[in-house]
């Protein structure tokens, strides 16, 4: 295919491409700035096959990501919040020699040429052209994902993976010329980068945020300046909570794409009253973003489900014997072509041609998928399999609870028992007895947490996903 | 990819799939009826690689087209209006042994098993399963196209061609869940069949018409029951003319996809006042429908242009020396993989990797494509190249003219001269002198038709495209 940015500029030069703080760029303006960077970076990156980038969500980073892509280099996205040791591993694994980083980034890596944004701007422009085409089979990006054990894996995503991801999403959510998608999730993560890709393929504007500025976002959505936003559940809750009373969103705002776990009925109902469709979704770095999504019209009827596959995707649940729950496995043109330097681990993830996600789930009789959680998160308690997600979803309906996370802790009698880590809404609380009584009413007895504790913060990945295995390391106090 | 119909039924079983006369079928109902036909047709088609179909636009034909596709057979679409001689050639060329046809079709072909719809319905059901997957590289359909000379060519279109066509269109026009597309163009032509394909891929309803029932169509569009319609210019003119005074269309009606030639400014202005976006488009059987389209927002500003390429498509105009006009050539994932039994003709159409459309055109300074006409339609008059399209577009602005077609006729002095064939709006007319004066005002003198004649009808292909080379064979009288 023709270079997506160049094609987009030819097709719709005057449409909004990106908005950041007070600044707006059309595709034509965006491309002018990107090609200027291409001419600056051509020489220093000439010998590189892969280039690493560390950037917060800002306009400079946005332009540089595109510039590296224009030069035909594979972009290795690094997470700014990782430790020196973690990043040193990834830099070495990807054989990186040049790291592009924002000026405020302080860590230094031996043997790596670290180019700051300022240094790049100061480079002279030299004749250098963008690549003419994007080959769908070429590796466009590498993103590292951590399992609970072992080294992180460099997930190689091709242009084809990103293309089909954008198409699958459009076929499900719909799209209209003039759409704008709010990107307040990290660009270095597939949730954010997939919005950049959609922008080029759809001709869609991106409204970029460097943090989840809930008031600015609500204002934009009330003014009709955006059609779609990607969020994790806590962001959505905060948006709805911060919306001024007796006001509503603009009808241009069609869709909340919700990842990172299920939301609760009160939030769904609130959103429904506001006319906003919440599309629950399920995906991972290995599948270049969402592969399963629940339409807004089904949100209430199928509470807790992540929905149905996107059009180009197939999902199966591989169960043992008569079990209802089994391993969630996927076939998709968005599926990664491999883990960098770890073909064995990639091959090991396949089961008869299906890629095993590592998640456990089940289909209802209408073919809607429910994710019960990572196999690794499962709590084996007295012979019963308990999934934290299910317990969290039940408790999320309590208005006093801002966030809840459940993890297993070792127990002499049962092997393991679930423990609930709770952050209350400011000024609110519930007693241990009330929480237990609620659980007894909503859940099987072995799923009711053995203990309820309060925490002030939750360990999350850069993309906002809960890291349950780190919960026990948090400081907490037992709820009276 | 998973079989598109089966995937669609799994994803959105309860959405409208097709509406014909008073009948509506959801995807679930559609599939039940299609799979019933699969079980009836499995045995009689077991040994066939390709199956031919002759059908008007009706529900039985719609279901049978899908059933043959479900069985993994290549569908050879035949045009019901062709002569026995023409069809016999195509049946033989495609090595057809079984022809599925509507009950009213009367021609008989030797050596061909002709299965009528009634005969198929009377067949017993036998265990037979639809194919599990559609391979994007497999030939899904063959459609014959006629050049002005030689035998018709069987254009082989793969599932990938159709998929990318649907995607390219969606990325340009946008799409929303709940869209309905009116198919009043023939299903056996790419303009109609591409709507069937979009239905499966988008999860979109099709409102099927067996003829261009302008009042029923206007009613549907006024009631908000459809979002899109495919038309040729004369259909659009008729729609707007028949719209009751002081009424308008429903806002659900977003797009007129216009093929088969340019429209005129008064029609554009009328549509614009009604809030309907007219998307002029350009494509051919060889590119599995539109590859270039003009957004509604540009329709007036770029009158006469067919627009810009769809996102997956590249277009170039290959000019000689300093010429502005040249040969229109295309690269596209929708491009046919070949002409059946005529690899030489297919290869001959390529110019350095680009497929030559046989059309002449030019780009303006903003990259909008203008088609001047088929190279074969070009009139070489006194050393000047004259394109009928341009003359027709100019005269189409006159409200007294319902339809105009221009073709070259031999002339002793100039080699050839343009002659205009005109059908006036009922009750209206213009004199030869007025028509000539208008031309002098709008066109270079050598483009002004040497003669204006009236005709009652125009020779058109089944898809409504004008057949200029047959114009001289029409009975006509010279306008006084």
From TrEMBL, chains A, B:
It is an enzyme of class 6 (ligase). Pfam families: AMP-binding, AMP-binding_C. Its EC number is 6.2.1.26. Pathway: Quinol/quinone metabolism; menaquinone biosynthesis; Quinol/quinone metabolism; 1,4-dihydroxy-2-naphthoate biosynthesis; 1,4-dihydroxy-2-naphthoate from chorismate: step 5/7. The keyword Methyltransferase does not apply. Keywords: ATP-binding, Ligase, Menaquinone biosynthesis, Nucleotide-binding. It catalyses: 2-succinylbenzoate + ATP + CoA = 2-succinylbenzoyl-CoA + AMP + diphosphate. GO terms for molecular function: ATP binding; medium-chain fatty acid-CoA ligase activity; o-succinylbenzoate-CoA ligase activity. The keyword Ligase applies. It comes from the Bacteria. Transmembrane segments: none annotated. GO terms for biological process: fatty acid metabolic process; menaquinone biosynthetic process. InterPro entries: AMP-bd_C, AMP-bd_C_sf, AMP-binding_CS, AMP-dep_synth/lig_dom, ANL_N_sf, MenE. Converts 2-succinylbenzoate (OSB) to 2-succinylbenzoyl-CoA (OSB-CoA). Belongs to the ATP-dependent AMP-binding enzyme family. MenE subfamily. NCBIfam families: menE (TIGR01923), PRK03640.1 (NF002966). This is 2-succinylbenzoate--CoA ligase.
